[in-house]
Amino acid sequence: MALSDSKWLNIQETIIKYPEVSIYENFLNATKGDLDKVIIEQGKVSYTPRQLIEYSNKLADYFLSENIQVQDTISVLLPNTIWFVVSVFAAFQVGAKVTLINSRLSQKEIEFQIIDSETKILITNESFCDLISNIPEHYKLLSSILTPDSKCKIDSSNDNKIMKMEDVFKQDGIYTGIISNSEDIAFLLYSGGTSGLAKGVMLTHFNMIANAYQFNHWASDIPEEYSKAVLSSLPLCHSFGLQCGFFAPLFRGEKIIILPKFHPVDVLKIIEEKGASSFYGVPTMYIAILREKIEDFDLSSLKVCVSGGSALPKEIHHSFEEKTGISIVEGYGLTECSPVTHINPYGKTKVNSIGVPLIDTKVRIIDSQSTEQLETGEVGELTIKGPQVMKGYWGKGLESVNVFTPDQWLRTGDLVKEDDENYFYLVDRLKDIINSGGLKIYPREVEEVLFKHPAIAVAAVIPIPDEYFGEVPKAFIVTKEGHDLTGEEVQDFCNEQLSKYKVPKYYEIIDELPLSAAGKVLKRELIDRFSLKD
User: Fold this and answer.
1) Residue 425 phi/psi, 5° resolution?
2) Which of 363, 412, 433, 446 has the least CB density, counted as fewest CB within 10 Å?
3) Interhelix angle for 23-30 vs 49-65, to 10°?
4) Is residue 73 within 8 Å of residue 98, measured between CB atoms?
5) How far are the Cα atoms of 66, 90, 94, 121, 155 from residue 62, in angstroms, in the given order?
6) pLDDT, tens digit, for every residue of 371-403?
7) What is the CB neighbour count within 10 angstroms for residue 501?
8) Element (H or E) spanning 119, and its range?
9) Sequence-distant (≥ 6) Cβ neighbours of residue 12 within 8 angstroms
10) Is the pTM of this model over 0.85?
């Protein structure tokens, strides 16, 4: 079958009628008037729509008193907490856009995002008190707001106004309106930091709502008794956590259990104690969970596990299913698509596949050089059209143009292939391919072999310069607890399972791999580390 015959290319109109409202208005509509139903739990505290609305109205009134205008930027630098949710909702009420800042960034990177996004108000907690005091003097915020759990004292000598959120809530004013509309920018989510300078991805309210409804169309195949509560431990500052761990379940009426920070034991305890039925994670989270004594916890309530963010190694999929009885459903997305584009149909998972496109998502596989469409089974760059595709990059007109083909397909930079049943497979990042003596080496293929070794917990393969071949693969390896391993042993293992030119030339055993807040391996840091050593 030629790809031109694929059903994913012939979508002319959307099947779903997506609400043309703001995210906050869609939240109000999703409550269906039941304002006292518990929709969020954090620790021992439960929250209802009525409480969220009251907090949001108060904070929105404060934003207006600070003269926040439509499409001004409000930055949220917080872990997964109820105050994160309230801050986002209040911003949407007054028509502001929100940039979410990863708390694991360096001060310099945080300052870059605040300044690049033209932030007017920063909302954070006591962990970042020093940051507020040290924002460059040439850049003035209207104010900074500290969440109620913050106990630090702030030096306001740099003229940045500091407010405590509890003091905002004590004020008399409330604002009950909604200024945002569906085509306004809802989020500036900064992406690309793993491979270069971060860019602000402009996602509209319509983009985010459409993708939530697309994802919930997939979730509608899950039995209702398996959809009682989502455990949200992915960082909400990341598109995967924000959409799949929050907005999508919020709009479908599923309770959300918020965990401020991922820890495998905490996840297992919450599943046991609160009866979480769904868990969304990146591969490194599942690897961390597998290191624990899973058999000591009652996980009978857990029915649905989804993996995204990066490729799920086949060995991890099999190990998790063996220990829990649950087959992880793998999906795929990118921040530029709000973020989900593909997922395996529930109950019809193919191991190592990212599944099929979501409803109303058009996909095409092209030659990355010529942009010509390829045939089924051929490896090429994935391109996408759909209601979830971003508006563009903030302040980067040329890059916004270049990321699309001339006929307006979004170029993902990811290499994939499609099988005869229309399932897609992620081969690798286009930028990660190793060109060794004219031969292409896909790091993911090598990593899959490394994961088969009984002593290896995590591995990452990168290109390093070589005088003769141009580039050769190097493997960074983290061993399982209680195991020792040498490069020679790993090389012998690889020699048995890989073509000679694909076998890594160098090996380095390290304590841990550098990870982003979302749990992705930061290969750029590994490459930089090698360059520094060299």
Assistant:
1) -130, 130
2) 433
3) 160
4) yes
5) 6, 9, 10, 11, 22
6) 899 998 999 999 999 999 999 999 999 999 999
7) 16
8) strand 119-124
9) none
10) yes
Phi-psi region of 338 (alpha: psi -120 to 50; beta: other; left: phi over 0): left
Contacts for 337 with CB less than 8 Å, ≥ 6 apart:
211, 384, 386, 388, 389, 390, 410
Residue pair 430/382 in contact by the 8 Å Cβ criterion: no
Q: Are 357 and 6 in contact (CB under 8 A)?
A: no
Q: What is the CA angle 363-366-376, rounded to 5? A: 75
Alpha carbon 23 to its chain's center: 18
DSSP secondary-structure letter at 437? T
Rounded Cα–Cα distance for residues 365 and 520 (Å): 24
Rounded to an integer, what distance in angstroms lies between the CA atom of residue 123 and that of residue 146? 6
The backbone torsions φ and ψ at residue 116, rounded to the nearest 5 degrees and listed phi first, read -65, -35
Tell me, what amino acid is at 110?
I
The helix (run of H) or strand (run of E) holding residue 99 is strand 97-100
Q: What is the 3-state secondary structure (H, E, C) of 246-306?
A: HHHHHHHCCEEEECCCCCHHHHHHHHHHHCCCEEEECHHHHHHHHCCCHHHCCCCCCCEEE
